[in-house]
Amino acid sequence: MYNYCKLRKKSRIKQHWTVMEDEVAHEIEYACRPISGKMAVTIDGETFGLSSKFLFFGLARREAFRVGDTQALLAVARNGKAQVLIKGKPIEEN
C-alpha cells in the first residue's frame, strides 16, 4: 500500500527569499499545494492566504505586495513555482 502522507508532503511547494532594504533583511516565504490550490505568502512572519476557488494546475497568477517600502510582485507559474520580482528583476531564492 502506498503511503498517502508521503505523497502529500512531496506535493507541497515551499520557497524562501531574503530581500535587503536599507540594511534590513526581509524574509519572504511562499507555500503552495498545487492540487488543492491553497497558497500562502509569509512576509516578515505575517502570513497572507491567497485564495483559489478551483484546482491550481495550469493557472499562472501575479500578486502585488510590499516589502517594507518597496513594491514587489509574486509571479506564480503554471507548475506552482514562484518568483519574487522587485523593479521587474527576479530575486534569487535561498
Q: What characteristics describe this protein?
A:
about 90 residues, mainly beta, 4-stranded antiparallel β-sheet
Topology:
Blueprint: H1 4-10, E1 13-21, E2 24-33, E3 38-43, E4 46-50, E5 61-67, E6 70-76, E7 82-86, E8 89-90
Antiparallel strand pairs: 1-2, 2-3, 3-4, 5-6, 6-7, 7-8
Quick rundown:
The protein has 94 residues and is mainly beta.
Unreliable stretches = 1-7
Q: What's the alpha carbon Rg, rounded to whole Å?
A: 14 Å
**Beta-strand proportion:** over 45%
Distance between the termini: 36 Å
Class by alpha and beta content: mainly beta
Mean pLDDT: 83
- What is the molecular shape? globular
Question: What's the arrangement of strands in the largest beta sheet?
Answer: 1-2-3-4
- In DSSP terms (H or I, runs of 4 or more residues), the helix count works out at 1
* Topology, number of strands: 8
Largest sheet: 4 strands, antiparallel
Query: What's the CATH topology name?
Result: Lipocalin
> Architecture, CATH level 2?
Beta Barrel
- Helix coverage percent: under 10%
Number of domains: 1
Element pattern in H and E:
HEEEEEEEE
Describe this structure in words.
The protein contains 1 helix and 8 strands. Mean pLDDT is 83; it is low at 1-7. The chain is globular, with a radius of gyration of 14 Å. It has one helix spanning 4-10, and strands spanning 13-21, 24-33, 38-43, 46-50, 61-67, 70-76, 82-86, 89-90. It is mainly β and 94 residues long. Strands 1-2-3-4 form a 4-stranded antiparallel sheet, with no helix packed on it. It has a 4-stranded antiparallel sheet with strand order 5-6-7-8, with no helix packed on it. 7% of the residues lie in helices and 54% in strands.
